UniProtKB/TrEMBL annotation:
Pathway: Isoprenoid biosynthesis; isopentenyl diphosphate biosynthesis via DXP pathway; isopentenyl diphosphate from 1-deoxy-D-xylulose 5-phosphate: step 1/6. This is 1-deoxy-D-xylulose 5-phosphate reductoisomerase. Signal peptide: none annotated. 1-deoxy-D-xylulose 5-phosphate binds at residues 108, 130-131, 155, 176, 189, 194-195, 198. The keyword Metal-binding applies. Its EC number is 1.1.1.267. Mn(2+) binds at residues 129, 131, 198. PANTHER family: 1-DEOXY-D-XYLULOSE 5-PHOSPHATE REDUCTOISOMERASE (PTHR30525), 1-DEOXY-D-XYLULOSE 5-PHOSPHATE REDUCTOISOMERASE, CHLOROPLASTIC (PTHR30525:SF0). One of its GO terms (biological process) is isopentenyl diphosphate biosynthetic process, methylerythritol 4-phosphate pathway involved in terpenoid biosynthetic process. InterPro entries: DXP_reductoisomerase (IPR003821), DXP_reductoisomerase_C (IPR013644), DXP_reductoisomerase_N (IPR013512), DXPR_C (IPR026877), DXPR_C_sf (IPR036169), NAD(P)-bd_dom_sf (IPR036291). The gene is dxr. Keywords: Isoprene biosynthesis, Magnesium, Manganese, Metal-binding, NADP, Oxidoreductase. Residues 238-354 form the DXP reductoisomerase C-terminal domain. SUPFAM superfamilies: 1-deoxy-D-xylulose-5-phosphate reductoisomerase, C-terminal domain (SSF69055), Glyceraldehyde-3-phosphate dehydrogenase-like, C-terminal domain (SSF55347), NAD(P)-binding Rossmann-fold domains (SSF51735). It comes from Thermovibrio ammonificans (strain DSM 15698 / JCM 12110 / HB-1).
Length: 363
């Protein structure tokens, strides 16, 4: 057990958290669960606690964020899996970074909103998002100065070829053609906002200017991302669309774990297509680039407005096509100053949500 890594999972009952536990269960001699944090699912957290026996488990809905902070301070861990969905993960991710452990980062919103503060605080970040994991893997052993651009792939979501987007229902938007994800990420994938947030995340992870971070639509979700080098050669990472692969890589890096034949990609007969994203029909991607180029606090406002818009859409209160409209109007109506701390990021996020709800009444 000498080399057994101690793992603290933030967001243990969500999709990433459950898949992380599957990986850990497959390699009990390599990893030990020492901390579990969940949002509201008491029953699932209790079952996980009984099965994995962590030193601390926290249900945020009952104990609050301060209990998460205390747990992170009191428990010793080697890796924090940061998988709390949305801006709720900003402070826990930052607190985990301050501990000096590796961050296996799945919560893209924490970097979108607080990238400056988290990257400064973190000793090591290994991305879990499949696209950023792919870029990270392609860059191992390469020189930063020889990177010309990185290329994030997007499936295009379920409506890539659909003409009528006005009539899209929440049930339709939640049916992703390739990946099994939580509802927020699935809707973001349908609007291309997920890719927009990933562009901003990539900016903080790989230190490239926005014009060197590209997006292509790849419907098969086999090529997870690519890197083009200055000699015009291109490296890509391919694999089945299963989050256990990037999770295992983030936990075990620089080693790789034998995950088994079920995750083996059959290359024979594979069809690989790439298209330019349609930012006229799916303007969220364009909005994300604009927020990145304008800088703080606009990415915070972008993310907050998106979370409100997706929530209202899933509740049936706004149409699918109103999601980018609400985000754009919130960005235009905002007048917030650049944050000087993570705490100020959280305050701007709160105020931007309030503004977005007001904007929604005008649409």
């Amino acid at each position: 057990m000498r080399d057994c890594k101690r793992v603290f999972i933030l967001g243990s009952t969500g999709s990433i958290g459950r898949n992380t536990l599957k990986v850990i269960e497959q390699f009990p001699d390599r990893f030990k669960v020492v901390g579990l944090v969940a949002g509201r699912n008491r029953e699932a957290l209790q079952l996980q606690t009984e099965k994995f026996g962590p030193e601390r488990s926290v249900l945020v809905a009952e104990e609050g964020l301060e209990a998460v902070k205390r747990a992170l301070e009191e428990v010793e861990f080697d890796v924090a899996v940061c998988a709390i969905t949305g801006s709720a993960g900003i402070l826990p991710t930052y607190w985990a970074a301050l501990k000096g452990a590796r961050l296996a980062l799945a919560n893209k919103e924490s970097l979108v909103c607080a990238g400056r503060f988290i990257t400064e605080a973190a000793r090591e970040i290994i991305p879990v998002d499949s696209e950023h994991s792919a870029i990270f893997q392609c860059l191992v052993g390469e020189k930063q100065r020889e990177v010309e651009e990185i290329i994030l792939t997007a499936s295009g979501g379920p409506f890539r070829e659909r003409e009528d987007l006005e009539s899209v229902t929440p049930q339709e938007a939640l049916k992703h053609p390739n990946w099994k994800m939580g509802p927020k990420v699935t809707v973001d994938s349908a609007t291309l906002m997920n890719k927009g947030l990933e562009v901003i995340e990539a900016f903080w992870l790989f230190k490239l200017s926005p014009e060197r971070i590209k997006v292509v639509v790849h419907p098969q979700s086999v090529v997870h991302s690519l890197v083009r080098f200055t000699d015009q050669s291109v490296k890509a990472q391919l694999g089945v669309p299963d989050m256990r692969v990037p999770i295992a890589y983030a936990l075990s890096f620089p080693e790789r774990l034998p995950l088994g034949e079920e995750l083996k990609l059959n290359l024979v007969g594979q069809k690989l297509e790439f298209y330019e994203p349609d930012t006229e029909r799916f303007p969220c991607l364009k909005l994300a680039y604009r927020a990145l180029e304008e800088g703080y606090p606009y990415p915070i406002i972008l993310n907050a407005a998106d979370e409100v818009a997706v929530e209202l859409f899933l509740e049936g209160k706004i149409a699918f096509t109103k999601i980018p409209r609400l985000i754009e109007k919130t960005l235009e109506s905002s007048n917030f100053k650049e944050p000087a701390s993570v705490e100020e990021v959280v305050q701007i996020d709160k105020r931007a949500r309030e503004l977005a709800r007001q904007v929604a009444k005008w649409l």
